[in-house]
From TrEMBL:
InterPro entries: ACC_Biotin_Carboxylase, Acetyl_CoA_COase_biotin_COase, ATP-grasp, ATP_grasp_subdomain_1, BC-like_N, Biotin_carboxylation_dom, Biotin_COase_C, CPAse_ATP-bd. The keyword Methyltransferase does not apply. It comes from the Bacteria. Pfam families: Biotin_carb_C, Biotin_carb_N, CPSase_L_D2. It is an enzyme of class 6 (ligase). Residues 120-316 form the ATP-grasp domain. This is Biotin carboxylase. The lineage of its organism: Bacteria, Pseudomonadati, Pseudomonadota, Alphaproteobacteria, Acetobacterales. Transmembrane segments: none annotated. Acetyl-CoA carboxylase is a heterohexamer of biotin carboxyl carrier protein, biotin carboxylase and the two subunits of carboxyl transferase in a 2:2 complex.
């Protein structure tokens, strides 16, 4: 086992990793920008190293500074968390080249799954079902027209290197295709420096279902069930559930077996998440995230597992030590992402937290690095906390979340807590009757 780990991230995920390390008896190194010198993970870590000014490119994306910090502190491994460098294959490769351990999958698998065309091709060969569409990159508008005519409109043009909804455009009819093609490529070029695109059938009422997996260095792969991440605004998740109200245990087992067999054949190691669109009883693979997910706590709550602890164990070369039969699912969990945003306009609202009082009680968990007097900086993602609840049934989990939201006090800045209260009160949500398009329609309604 490692004796010291550098945490190459900030905010709640840095604190989450620090806690797992502390329980394993591992010392921690926090790296931080000048804007985060008073951050909670910096205060609690065994050592802290400033790696640059506020801008991410000069600090949390500064590979040389992070590696220097690891070297001078004697860290043996680097945990990237999520975001920033977590899915950067070159970074993973460089970490290993410097004699350190990257806590995550291999650079080869990060690279393979980071290109969505390669990921789809690989999964198709391994027997994982796909959304109907092009076999690979579209090389011309004429080719796009041919594929679109074959799968039927509406269609979605997607960036091969995309993420977060960037480089995605819908063509409802043949007349819309040229504009969608041009805009998707231009957006992809600007965002990723790569204008390669492909085409998929646009599904009109799917759910976004993802499957959490873990693999060790010895070919053993297991899954920890599904998360329903359908409540999204502009392709950004806001609320997640485990398990999905749309799936049965039999459906979970079937897609879980398909996924674990595929990743075992790949030799995949550490944590990963397969993402699917689910409609009319059919799963269609869309992408894989080769890292820990923001929403991992809902899986931890229903499976009683510490996924970060498992990541560290596996990176240290340990075997899983259990099989799929050993994993059980208990109750229901819901996560609400608490963003420092106006709940109506979604405008970011950085500033000083005048009062911070998190909720508590049975089955309530808050993952946050906030404290009273903390100044939320304007330079990073607006998510400031995750509120997670667990209960024996979905109905009880909803009631517990409503109670917890009412207890949650964050003053001095605006947050989306009022929006979460509205969502939890909605009859369609309470029945579990929503798709990936539901939240956009819900937030457009007057209230």
């Amino acid at each position: 086992m490692f004796s010291k780990i550098l945490i190459a991230n900030r905010g709640e995920i840095a604190l989450r990793i620090l806690r797992a390390c502390r329980e394993l008896g591992i010392k921690t190194v926090a790296v931080h920008s000048t804007a985060d010198e008073d951050a909670m993970h910096v205060r609690l870590a065994d050592e802290a190293v400033c790696i640059g000014p506020p801008a991410s490119r000069d600090s949390y994306l500064n590979v040389a500074a992070i590696l220097s910090a690891a070297t001078i502190t004697g860290a043996e491994a680097i945990h990237p968390g999520y975001g920033f460098l977590s899915e950067n294959a070159d970074f993973a490769e460089t970490v290993e080249a410097h004699g350190l351990t990257f806590i995550g999958p291999t650079a080869e698998h990060i690279r393979m799954m980071g290109d969505k065309i390669t990921a789809k091709t690989t999964m198709q060969m391994l027997g994982v079902p796909l959304v109907p569409g092009s076999d690979g990159e579209l090389t011309s508008l004429e080719q796009a027209r041919e594929v679109a005519d074959n799968v039927g409109y509406p269609v979605l043009i997607k960036a091969a290197a995309g993420g977060g909804g960037r480089g995605m455009k819908v063509a409802q009819t043949a007349g819309d295709l040229e504009d969608a093609w041009k805009m998707a490529r231009a957006e992809a070029r600007a965002a990723f420096g790569n204008d390669a695109v492909y085409l998929e059938k646009y599904m009109d009422r799917p759910r976004h279902i993802e499957l959490q997996i873990l693999g060790d260095n010895y070919g053993n792969v297991v899954h920890f069930g599904e998360r329903d991440c359908s409540l999204q605004r502009r392709h950004q998740k806001l609320l997640e559930e485990a398990g999905s109200p749309a799936l049965t245990a039999e459906q979970r087992d079937a897609i879980g077996q398909t996924a674990t067999q595929a990743l075992s054949k790949m030799g995949y190691r550490n944590a990963g998440t397969l993402e699917f669109l689910y409609q009319d009883g059919q799963f269609c693979f869309i992408e894989m995230n080769t890292r820990l997910q923001v929403e991992h706590p809902v899986t931890e709550m229903v499976c009683d597992v510490d996924l970060v602890r498992e990541q560290i164990r596996l990176a240290a070369g340990e075997q899983l030590g259990y099989t799929q039969k050993d994993i059980s699912f208990s109750g229901h969990a819901i996560e609400c992402r608490i963003n420092a945003e106006d709940p109506d306009s979604f405008t970011p609202c950085p500033g000083t937290v005048a009062v911070y009082h998190p909720p508590g009680g049975l089955g309530v968990r808050v993952d946050s690095a906030l404290y009273t007097g903390y100044r939320v900086p304007p330079f990073y993602d607006s998510m400031i906390a995750k509120l997670i609840v667990h209960a024996p049934t979905r109905e009880q989990a909803i009631a517990r979340m409503q109670r917890a939201l009412d207890e949650f006090v964050v003053e001095g800045i605006k947050t989306v807590i009022p929006l979460h209260r509205r969502i939890l009160e909605d009859p369609e949500f309470q029945k579990g009757e929503y798709t990936i398009h539901w939240l956009e329609q819900f937030t457009a309604k007057p209230h």
